[in-house]
Every structure is written in structure tokens, then in C-alpha cells.
Amino acid sequence: MSDESLQRYEAVLTTPELVVLELEVDSKEEAAAVLARKLFDAGRITNLEGFLAQINAREHQLATGLPGGIGIPHARSEYVSQISIAVGITKYGHALDFGASDGPATVILLIATPASSFSAHLEVLATLARSLFRENFRESLRRAHDPEVIAELINSTLVFFDH
Q: Mean pLDDT per 10-residue run, the chain (163 residues)?
């Protein structure tokens, strides 16, 4: 997918079907597996094992935890058919270590981008990070308890300008 076609996908970067509430796993690798399965089941990635290997390799290179309890595992991959974000909100009392200096994550955003979409990948990461640094946005995600609301929050944040 070229960056020019990013506009077409803006409203469907995530859907309620790609949101997992009450995520209860023991590691960031398990969280990535659960969220990647959602992307695979939705037809947004073509090779689950291959994509997970790339996510985990990326995670070992550099931690993807952001301040405020956020994990953003991500990869550009030939197995991704369209830019997508799967969202996991951990079960109360559960958190996962994504390497952030202020502690573990309770909101996990798995970002999958086609290998050819380098600038779009950076734009999604930058735009999402800006929103996630706002405490009110992070709290809105945590408190939503509704996949539709969470998907809308994510999609409305990622407004792209013409390239």
C-alpha cells in the first residue's frame, strides 16, 4: 500500500473486533499473540507466526513502552495487508512490562503496517504517541469498557493530512 492510499484506511485503522477488553496474559509476547490473532482473523495480516516473529524481534531491539502505562509493539511487515491497530486493555490488577521507565502497561496498541509504508508507519507512531502522552486520552481508553468507543477514540486521533 502506498502512503497516498493511507487516506482510504484512516477510518478503519481499528474496529471494535480488534479490541480486547479484560486482557489477562502473563507477558508482552502473549499480549502480542492475542492481538495479532485478532488482526489475522480479520484478514489484516496473512501470516500470524511470521508477523509475530517480526513483532518480537522488534521488541527485543528496543522497548516499546511509553510513560503512563502504554505499550506499543509495532512492525512494518510484508504480512500486513493494511495499516491496522489492535487494542488490548488489561484486566484490572494486571499490567505488562514493555520497558517504560515509569512501570508496566495496561493499554497495549499493536500497530501493523505494510512493509512498503515507511512514512505512514512513522506518522501513525508519532500521531498516536502525541495523543497517548495526554493523560485524559489514556484515561478515556482505560475507562471506555466498550470496544466501539475505544475504536472510535483511536480512529479519531489518527487524522492524516494529505501527503
A: 43 90 95 98 97 94 93 96 95 93 95 92 91 94 94 84 34
- Domain assignment of residue 95, yes or no: yes
**Rounded to an integer, what distance in angstroms lies between the CA atom of residue 60 and that of residue 70?**
17
> How high is the pLDDT of residue 158?
79
Task: Please give the model's pTM, rounded to 2 decimal places.
Answer: 0.89
Q: Which domain holds residue 67?
A: 13-157
- Taking the CA atoms of 89, 92, 94 and 96 in sequence, report the sign of the dihedral they define: positive
Cβ distance 44 to 114 under 8 Å?
no
Task: Indicate the number of domains in the chain.
Answer: 1
User: CB pairs under 8 A, 24+ apart, for 141-148?
Assistant: 141/87, 141/89, 141/107, 142/69, 142/89, 142/106, 142/107, 144/89, 145/21, 147/16, 147/17, 147/19, 147/21, 148/16
DSSP 8-state secondary structure symbol assigned to residue 105:
B
Look at residue 161 in the predicted model and tell me its pLDDT: 36
